[in-house]
Amino acid sequence: MEVKKLSISWQFLIVLVLILQILSALDFDPYRVLGVSRTASQADIKKAYKKLAREWHPDKNKDPGAEDKFIQISKAYEILSNEEKRSNYDHYGDAGENQGYQKQPQQREYRFRHFHENFYFDESFFHFPFNSERRDSIDEKYLLHFSHYVNEVVPDSFRKPYLIKITSDWCFSCIHIEPVWKEVVHELEGLGVGIGVVHAGYERRLAHHLGAHSTPSILGIINGKISFFHNAVVRENLRQFVESLLPGNLVEKVTNKNYVRFLSGWQQENKPHVLLFDQMPAVPLLYKLTAFAYKDYLSFGYVHVGLRGAEEMTRQYNVNVYAPTILIFKEHINKPADVIQARGMKKQVIDDFITQNKYLLAARLTSQKFFHELCPVKRSHRQRKYCVVLLTPEAAKLSKPFEAFLSFALANTQDTVRFVHVYSDRQQEFASTLLSDIDPFQGKSAVSILERRTTGGRVVYKTLEAPWTGSESDKFTLLGYLDQLRRDPALLSSEAVLPDLTDELAPIFLLRWFYSASDYISDCWDSVFHNNWREMMPLLSLVFSALFILFGTVIVQAFSDSNDERESNPPDKEEVHEKAGKTEPTFTKENSSKLPKKGFVEVTELTDVTYTSNLVRLRPGHMNVVLILSGPTKASLLQKFALEVYTFTGSSCLHFSFLSLDKHREWLEYLLEFAQDAAPIPNQYDKHFMERDYTGYVLALNGHKKYFCLFKPQKAVEEEAAVGSCGDLDSSLHLGETRGKSSCGLGPRPIKGKLSKLSLWMERLLEGSLQRFYIPSWPELD
């Protein structure tokens, strides 16, 4: 009897769970999520989405449920912003994309199908991981959004590589690779590799930006560049793929023959040098990742202790060959500055060890960035940082004054004092600012103690009166100043504004150009042979079209030349004049219909009164060419617009209007969102978003087919220089040129040049070769 009651209780519990699942599936209502009515317009839906997305974005809202709420808002907007999906949802309660083929059968089968999706394939009850919304938390932890990718992942990829997986709902291949992905993530994340997951259903913008057109896809990002993984998804292949992303010259192989040269490189590179001693023949991936993260601060070498060429080093530095050992060398290559030795060394331990030894004892200031790091600005009285600067000629490096300064820095025990040196002949402005009278220090070294007060360069300092020779008296004088400074910060009585340091290690222009060209060529090579072919089809089509036209022109020219040679008797002059007389009126007759019928251009303003007749209910085949204007530029731009389109007014299918940007900015920005590129897009909530100048934009609107073509004004360098010489003009006038006026007037010269290429654009519009941007429906013009 008790067993029977227990069985009934379990059956009741199962039925209750199923009912809750069905109710939760039916509970999603996109209208309720966005807070709009079923009769809401696209403009109202857009406003509601922007407001809710700004409020619930996970980067701004720290609420634990913000991410789920944001996903619901995005899904609701995806349904309601698409007229077809919205219609399917209104009629059948679902926005499936296959509704258009079998609408009536799906209407009858909807209830059963919805029950089928949420019961038989629900992992929360039967543990079938088909629904990615409730998949294992391993993916939810690494989900990426577009803003997070642009603002955090791309900058961080210059310090560590990222491995990103593209997934989606009902992706059976994604389920197949899930165990391998979990294992690889657990291993590589501990080594310092960034992990990311992009849901192609909810983050289509990001997936398209990454170039992922299928799921699952795995790609790597390093230094802002994207590389796709094309091999079988197994642990070793993924590990090798991450290793292949790293530059090949990160770690140098060091032996008895080259270790002196390697460690002596601190003089030229201005960096500490790191040596790893290990028994592995290949450089460990953890060490490569560490070298990439700190490549701007240290140089890394690897010693394979199993080789015969390493005995001298291991004996000289007393290295235990049976455990991995890391040595850091600074100015003295005979003795390491710091040592760490442990079996199974973890990344956090290595990072802490490297961070404590990022700089030399007396590093050389080679750039303004390095100056900010070594001599930070004072934040409070308890966080004072003093810099002792040795101003020395470059030829005096490794001389007695520098060696004495280095030994003094080595004996220093104060955390608030940093020792640096500057080549006075390379940084002449910097040195002359600290030396009030430079004549006594000509060709000699000097020491200054300074404290930075602001990021703008203001410092307080004290310069030793006598040149620095490295004698014992100089050391006692400097030590006395530092002891007095701990008790009385007012010792630094002089004040100055230091100029920015020149970057001594920056490559010259030709090298920078060569590196940029090589990177571009390598990117093109990878794109042609490794990346998605869908991205390369437009370029290949353009290349083959150009080749076809070129060879076609050569062949036609060859045949025409041969025909001309076969003609023995050329026509008489009278026959030529007779032919010319016949063809001339024919040309005039054919082109007379294209000439303007009026002596003026009729341009009307697009307002809420004329909006329906001039756009929404425009006859098929007709287009309205609309110029975007603002108050100060109305007269000059209308005049230039009329001149550019005058030759096209003979067509009865073209209508011309202008739109006030001050009144209808929101309507314009709604249309322009359909014309955005998939390249890096600025954040729509940026503080300068409402300050964009759309003056001079021209839209060709086809009201019947619901698409538009876009003309954007072009800048010219010589026009900007002409505008700059004219004084202070309004920021909206920084484009273009004018006709027949002086180059330095305050007239409409910079404005009219915005439409200088409009006539060419109009010709392409009539040819039908412009790109068309389709929209679901025309928004209301408030």
UniProtKB/TrEMBL annotation:
UniProt-listed InterPro entries: DnaJ_C16_autophagy_reg, DnaJ_domain, DnaJ_domain_CS, DNAJC16_TRX, J_dom_sf, Thioredoxin-like_sf, Thioredoxin_domain
Ranges of Basic and acidic residues composition bias in the record: 563-582
Gene3D superfamilies registered for this protein in UniProt: DnaJ domain (1.10.287.110), Glutaredoxin (3.40.30.10)
One Gene Ontology term from the biological process aspect of the record: autophagy
Signal peptide from the UniProt entry: 1-25
Membrane topology: Single-pass type IV membrane protein
Transmembrane segment boundaries: none
The protein, known as: DnaJ homolog subfamily C member 16
Native source organism of the sequence: Zalophus californianus
